[in-house]
Amino acid sequence: MKTWMCALMLALSTGASANFNPDGTIQKVIPTLRGVGLTNARSRIQIDRYSALQGKGIGIEYLDKNNCFAGWKTLFSKSNTALIYNKVDFGNEKVEEITVRAKSSKGGVLVVRADGKKGNIIAKVKIPKSAGWKNIRAQVLHAPQGVHALHVSLQSGADVEVDWLGFDALPWEKGAFETHQYRNLFAEMGYKQADIDRKVNEVFNDVFYGKNKVYFEVGDSMGYVSDIKNNDVRTEGMSYGMMAAVQFDKKDIFDRLWRWSKKYMQHEEGPYKGYFAWSCKTDGTRNAQGAASDGELYFVTSLIFASNRWGNDTGINYLKEAQHILDCSMQKAGMDRTAPLINLEHQLITFTPDHWGGKFTDPSYHLPAFYEVWAKWANDGRSQFWKECAEKSREFLHKCINEKTGLNPDYCNYDGSLMKTGQLLGDAFRYDSWRVPMNIALDYSWACKDKEWQQKYANTLQNFLYSKGIDSFLDQYNVDGTMVEDILPAGTAPKALRHSIGFVATSAAASLVSNHVKGREFVSHFWNAKHEPDKEGFFDGYYDGLLRLFAFMHLSGRYQIIEPQK
Question: For this structure, is 236 an active site residue?
Fold first, then answer.
C-alpha cells in the first residue's frame, strides 16, 4: 500500500499521468515538466518540480522513503549537473538574500543563475558537509526583477541534496490550526533560546509585577489591569490581561481578572445583559454603562482557551461564561438600545454594540482567527456563522487599508471607506490602529488563509515605515502617509508625535508575515528598544506595555492556540 501511494503521489507532484498495468499496479512514473503558473521568488521553491534536467547524475528522491507525504528532494550526485525551473516572479523590489535548505556528505557549491547557464549569476552558495539539513544563507550578487527561469547547477563537489531554495525572508506557509507549530523568529535570527525566554519573562513581569506594573490584586480573589495614564480600568486591558495570563498558564491571575470583570463590569440584567461596562474606576464604580466590542471579543476567546487549558470544574465554568456572552449578544438583534457584537447585515464587528457604534467599525477590532477559535470550541451552535465572520473580516481588511502605505484609519465604514466626520478621532492612523499589523500577524500565524495579501500588506507597511526611518517613524499619520494636522493626545500627556514602543512592537510582529529582509531589522530594533520615559517624561506602562508583551509573545512563538487538553 505504501509503495502504491508513493507512486501516485510522485505522479501528482510532477504533473505526470498515473498509468496502470492490467493487474492494477501503477506503471513507473517518469517526471515531466512542472506545468504552468508563476512561483513567487520569496517562497520556498521546490526545485524537485523542475522544468528540465541537464547532465547525468541529477534526479529526485523522497525526503523520507518511509513517508512519501514528507515531499521530495533534488540530488546533485556530481558536479556539472543542473536543472531549470521556469517562471519565477521576483517582483519589482530587488531580493537581497538567498536561502538554500540542503545537506551533503561531501560539500559543494551551488550556482543559481537567471535564464540559463550563461545568464547572470544571482548567487553562489557554498554547501558545507553535513549529515543533517541546514538552512544556508548567502548574499544575492545580481538581483533580477520580473519573471525569470532559474538555472541551478552544482559547480563543484558531489552528493548535494536540496530540499528547497528561496529568496529573502521566508514566512511559514501553513497556519498553526493545521501544523500545531509556532514560529520563533527571534531564534531564527540567532538569538539564544535562554535569552529569548529571559526577555519574554521580563516583559511579562514588567506588566504584572514590576515597578511600573499595571496589574493590581484586590483581596484574596480579585485583581484588575489599569490604564494608569487615564486612571481607569477598561475591558480592553482586563481582557488583554486574561489572554496573557492563559497563554502563560497563570490561572490565579486569570481568575482574579475574570472575577473583578464579572463583579464590577458585566451587566446582569437589562438591555446590556451579558455585556461589560467598558470603563470603571479602580474601585469598580462604572464610568460608562456601554460596551466596547473588542473587550467582549477578547473575553470570549480567552475564556474558551481557559476552558481548553484548565477545564471547567475548578470553580469557574469558563466555557459557560463564554457562551453566556455570545448568547446574550445574539439575543440583542432588533433591540432598541443595544445590538449584537457583530453587525448582522455585514457580519463585521461593531465599534460598540449599540445603534450609534453599530453603524461603523474599528479595523483594530478585526481578529479573524478568533472567530476560527469560536467556530471550533465555543459549542454555541453558530460554528458556520463564525467561519463566515472570519472570511468577511479578512475581506474587510483588504478594503480599509491603504494600498500604498499599509496604513488604516482608527474607525471606518463597513465598506472600508473613511467616515469623513471632520472630528479628530476616526480617519487617521492613530493609537487604535497600531494593533492592526499584530492582528494580521496573528491571523497569518494561526490560520494562514490569506497569505498572499497579508504578505503584501506587511511588506507595504514596513516599507513605508522604513522610508520614515526605522528608529524614528512616528505613531500618527494620515492613511495616505502625510502628516496629521492635529495630534491626538495620549491621556493627559502633552500632545506630541512619538516613536512609540507600542507601535515599534506591532510593526515588528508584522515580520512574521513580511517576506523581505527588512523585517529582521524591525525585529532587531524592537529587541533592543527600551521601555522607558521619553525625553518629555512620558511613559505608558499600560497600552505600550501590553502591546510590547503581545509582540514578544508573537515573535517567540509563545502566542498559541490553546486546544483542549487530552
Answer: yes
Which residues 6+ apart lie within 8 Å of 67 measured at CB?
Answer: none
Closest alpha carbon to 206 in 507, 531, 539, 554: 531
**Whole-structure pTM value:** 0.91
Q: What is the DSSP letter of 263?
A: I
Q: Which three cell numbers stand for residue 18?
A: 498515473
Contact 160, 154 (CB under 8 A): yes
**DSSP string computed for 188-252:** HTT--HHHHHHHHHHHHHHHHTSTT--EEEETTTEEEEEEGGGTEEEHHHHHHHHHHHHHTT-HH
Helix (H) or strand (E) holding 137: strand 130-139
Residue 9 identity = M
What does DSSP assign to residue 336? S
* Matching residue, cell 534526479: 59
Which residue of the set 227, 236, 354, 540 is catalytic?
236
521 is catalytic: no
Query: What b-and-e string marks burial along 453-463, b requiring 16 or more CB atoms within 10 Å of the CB?
Result: ebbbbbbbbbb
Q: Which residues pair with 137 in a beta bridge?
A: 99
Q: Which of 159, 161, 362, 432 is catalytic?
A: 432
Residue-wise pLDDT tens digits, 106-128 = 999 999 999 999 999 999 999 99
